[in-house]
Design a protein that fits this description.
There is one protein chain. The protein is mainly beta. The chain has eight domains: 142 residues, Immunoglobulin-like, CATH 2.60.40; 93 residues, Immunoglobulins (Immunoglobulin-like, Sandwich), CATH 2.60.40; 93 residues, Immunoglobulins (Immunoglobulin-like); 82 residues, Immunoglobulin-like, CATH 2.60.40; 85 residues, Sandwich (Immunoglobulin-like), CATH 2.60.40; 102 residues, Immunoglobulin-like (Sandwich), CATH 2.60.40.10; 34 residues; 224 residues, no CATH class. It contains eight helices and 49 strands. The protein has a five-stranded mixed beta sheet, with no helix packed on it. It is a single-pass type I membrane protein. It is found in: Cell membrane. GO terms for molecular function: cytokine binding; cytokine receptor activity. Belongs to the type I cytokine receptor family. Type 2 subfamily.
Length: 915
């Protein structure tokens, strides 16, 4: 036996036999185990002086419960608060194998016999069908259902109102769900304390957070109600109270049965039905008025409530022949809640006389013979009905001419008029009557000071402005048309008040990239004067085509290009200029790909003068292919390109110049050379082609036959005077061997001043022999000297052998030899000259025929040596082979002197004597 509960119960003894009660619910169902109860007491009285102690326990009382033979699991269908603990047992004669709550298995607690129990702690909220607890035996299953939930929450947002002052409707929100349904669901009772009446509410389905409502019938002559709402379920109860004046809580029903009745073309009567008895209160009803293309209008109507629920209201200030849509809602005064809007009611008001004449304009036909009158349909608010026809008339000071009626929808008439001034009138008619006439003059007021301007719009419209003109008394008319259309140019027109200075022209017909003509007219006494003429675009786009261009002229260094204007339809904006690109390149090989890339090899010309239609490209190369590209642009962008390949002509002038310049230079050089050669012909001849004396003409070599035959008795030749041949000797300087005068140059010659190395020159002396007079002179050297007449060429270097030192000179005796020695070495120093003279005098051979001392040793043809003390004599003239007599007379002192041996380029341009 186990003690499961020990409780102290306090009570008061009154001296009489009294039955005391104490209740207790066991955690273990009584059906599952035998329970025993024992009692003991203790007197706790301060006035009791005896011994205070517990009495003995009473005999235990067996509390047994006989379970139903059909029921095996206890307790059955218990309702618990969420989070509670419970013990469930199974009474059976069979062995229980397992137990589970929901899908969770629980450990078994074994009781007496085969009985078992399970302990469930902190149970969670059940589903709508409850939570199942199942015990399994070998061949069967036993179980029960547990319902875990919450007691009812306090009703929230309790509100009571009436729709018709006949029945009160109370609504509330149940609050937190209880998770108990069916018989365990929450029941609500609405109790009114003043009358003592109540109503009950009970739901079977699962409660949610939706609003609940109860209907309470109003009591006669009672306006104030005190309501208490009580909520109850097996786990507990709650309540909420509300005190309300029901006349201030009226929420009317939706108005129904709306009807409209005409009062006039501008006023109607509305009637509707509003369920309820509102005789004791006032109503405020709101009428919504809608018409096509207009903002809805609200009008409030206050009226006294009535018993029969039918109400009327008049609506005025309407437009004739206009479709209106009406709807109504109502509330009480003071305001509590609007009723819902009624269904819409549509109605067409009756017709009236048109309030205005048609908007009229006129244009002359292209031939100027007919006047075309245009007018626009009257808007609904001005037509006041269906327009049936139009009456057009024209009048002058003399007569009035009326045309037949023109039926609607025709809005144009044509009248044949002269150029006189007429007043045109147009009247619109409907079933009620005619409109006031619209008048316009047939002729325009001339304006000589008119300029065409440009304007660009804002995408779907264009802003036009003008200066205020006090002379404009009627209004302004702005007319526009597509510039590509033929005359008469009219697409639409618009009238603006005379005090305006600007307007925005918008039209669904406007398209981007299309040019329109706008004309601003001012009205003066029904006559119009053109004030401004404007061409414009609502939006500019790039041109769709490139300008067509051709090459008008091509030269060797330029190309003349001419292009045509782009049609207005394809220009799509105001032309701002042309971009002309050109570069060198053959067809299919041009590298012009991105024109705006800024490459240096592409030349660009921006032509901003749009009136220019030609361009000459200069500074080009002849016979060269060029790639030409032309593009037009507007503010809307750059148009496509048009390209062409052009080859420039060959530059004939340059070719001629290129040919003539070398020829001219060659001719000039040839002429100058010829002149110089002609002037220097003798010098050139002597330099390059000198005259060689013919030995056959030399008489000095004409010997006697006996001489030629080698006469042994030949004696020394006796010289007789002879006439020498004139020989001109020219002195030149050259680095190559050449024939010179009879100048003998010393090997130790004076070096040039610039100290440059000079190679020794081989000079050849031409000796010319005079005629020889035969004389028998015994000459031992005759055998050696015999021979044919000839010119003997003597190498000058062979004449100048290295000179001996002074002390060695006596060893070489010039007189040691006999006979004539023409190639002997001549000593030039004064001592040698004296010695040579003495030796020659002593010789038995040839003697010179002139005084050697008289020779000019310092002639220009005989340069001195600067490297020795002796002077080297160079013979300046051919001499006889047998004498040293000059064949050319000595030069005068006044004759020009040579500048020295050899020649230079500067000497070529200097004149020589005897030229």
């Amino acid at each position: 036996m186990e003690i499961v509960k020990l409780v102290t119960h306090n009570t008061t003894l009154n001296g009489r036999d009294t039955i005391h009660h104490w209740s207790w619910t066991s955690d273990m169902p009584l059906e599952c185990a035998t329970h025993y109860v024992g009692i003991r007491c203790y007197i706790d009285d301060p006035q009791f002086s005896g011994r205070k102690e517990w009495s003995d326990w009473s005999p235990l009382k067996n509390i047994s419960w006989s379970p139903d033979s059909q029921t095996k699991v206890f307790p059955q269908d218990r309702v618990l608060l969420v989070g509670s603990d419970i013990t469930v047992c199974c009474v059976t004669q069979e062995e229980v194998l397992s137990a589970q709550i929901g899908s969770t298995y629980c450990p078994l607690i074994h009781l007496d016999g085969k009985n078992v129990a399970i302990k469930i702690r902190n149970i969670s909220a059940s589903e709508s069908s409850g939570t199942n607890v199942v015990f399994s035996v070998e061949d069967n299953m036993f179980g029960t259902v547990i319902f875990a939930g919450y007691p009812p929450d306090i009703p929230q947002k309790l509100n009571c109102e009436t729709y018709d002052l006949k029945e009160i409707i109370c609504t509330w929100n149940p609050g937190r769900p209880t998770f108990l349904v069916g018989p365990r669901n929450t029941s609500y009772t609405l109790f009114e304390s003043f009358s003592g009446k109540y109503v009950r509410f009970k739901r079977v389905e699962l409660p949610t957070n939706e609003s609940y409502q109860l209907f309470f019938q109003m009591l006669p002559n009672q306006e104030i109600y005190n309501f208490t709402l009580n909520a109850r379920n097996p786990l507990g109860q709650s309540e909420s109270t509300l005190l309300v004046n029901i006349t201030e809580k009226v929420h009317p029903h939706i108005p129904t049965s709306i009807k409209v009745k005409d009062i006039s073309s501008t006023a109607v009567t509305l009637s509707w039905h509003l369920p309820g008895s509102f005789a004791k209160i006032k109503l405020l009803c709101q009428i919504e008025i809608n018409k096509t293309n207009s903002v809805h209008e609200l009008r409030n109507v206050t009226m006294k409530g009535i018993e029969n629920s039918s109400y009327l209201a008049a609506v005025d200030k309407l437009n004739p022949y206009t479709i209106y849509t009406f709807r109504i809602r109502c509330c009480t005064d003071p305001f509590w809640k609007w009723s819902k809007w009624s269904n819409e009611k549509q109605y067409l008001t009756t017709e009236a006389i048109p309030s205005k004449g048609p908007d009229t304009w006129r244009e002359w036909s292209s031939d100027g013979k007919n006047l075309i009158i245009y007018w626009k349909p009257l808007p609904i608010n001005e037509a006041n009905g269906k327009i049936l026809s139009y009456n057009v008339s024209c009048s002058s000071d003399e007569e009035t001419q009326s045309l037949s009626e023109i039926p609607d929808p025709q809005h144009k008439a044509e009248i044949q008029l002269d150029k006189s001034d007429y007043i045109i009138s147009v009247v619109a008619k409907n079933s009620v009557g005619s409109s006031p006439p619209s008048k316009i003059a047939s002729m325009e007021i001339p304006n000589d000071d008119l300029k065409i301007e440009q304007a660009v719009g804002m995408g779907n419209g264009i802003l036009l402005t003008w200066n205020y003109d006090p002379n404009v008394t009627c209004d302004y008319v702005i007319k526009w048309c597509n510039s590509s259309r033929s005359e008469p140019c009219l697409m639409d027109w618009k009238k603006v008040p005379s005090n305006s200075t600007e307007t925005v022209i918008e039209s669904d017909q406007f398209r981007p990239g299309v040019r329109y003509n706008f004309f601003v007219y001012g009205c003066r006494n029904q006559g119009y004067q053109l004030l401004r003429s404007i061409i414009g675009y609502v939006e500019e786009l790039a041109p769709v085509v490139a300008p067509n261009f051709t090459v008008e002229d091509t030269s060797a260094d330029s190309i003349l290009v001419k292009w045509e204007e782009i049609p207005v339809e394809e220009l799509r904006g105001f032309l701002r200029g042309y971009l002309f690109y050109f570069e060198k390149g053959e067809r299919d090989t041009s590298k012009m790909r991105v024109l705006e890339s800024g490459r240096s090899d592409i030349k660009v010309k921006n032509i901003t003068d749009i009136s220019q239609k030609t361009l000459r490209i200069a500074d080009l190369q002849g016979k060269t292919s060029y790639h030409l590209v032309l593009r037009a642009y507007t503010d809307g962008g750059m148009g496509p390109e048009k390209s062409m390949f052009v080859v420039t002509k060959e530059n004939s002038v340059a070719l001629i110049i290129a040919i003539l310049i070398p020829v001219a230079v060659a001719v000039i050089v040839g002429v100058v050379t010829s002149i110089l050669c002609y002037r220097k012909r003798e010098w050139i001849k002597e330099t390059f082609y000198p005259d060689i004396p013919n030995p056959e003409n030399c008489k000095a070599l004409q010997f006697q036959k006996s001489v030629c035959e080698g006469n042994s008795a030949l004696k020394t030749l006796e010289m007789n005077p002879c006439t020498p041949n004139n020989v001109e000797v020219l002195e030149t300087r050259s680095t190559v061997p050449k024939i010179e005068d009879t100048e003998i140059i010393s090997p130790v010659a004076e070096r040039p001043e610039d100290n440059t190395d000079v190679q020794p020159e081989n000079h050849v002396v031409v000796s010319y022999c005079p005629p020889v007079i035969e004389e028998e002179i015994v000459n031992p050297g005759a055998d050696e000297a015999g021979g044919a007449s000839q010119v003997i060429y003597i190498d000058i270097q062979s004449m100048y052998q290295p000179q001996a030192k002074p002390e060695e000179e006596p060893k070489n005796d010039p007189a040691a030899g006999t006979g004539y020695k023409p190639q002997m070495h001549l000593l030039v120093t004064s001592t040698v000259e004296d010695l040579a003279t003495d030796d020659l005098d002593k010789s038995a051979g040839y003697r010179p025929q002139a005084n050697v001392n008289t020779w000019n040793l310092v002639s220009p043809d005989s340069p001195r040596s600067t490297d020795s003390n002796s002077e080297i004599v160079s013979f300046g003239s051919p001499c006889s082979i047998n004498s040293r007599q000059f064949l050319i007379p000595p030069k005068d002192e006044d004759s020009p002197k040579s500048n020295g041996g050899g020649w230079s380029f500067t000497n070529f341009f200097q004149n020589k004597p005897n030229d």
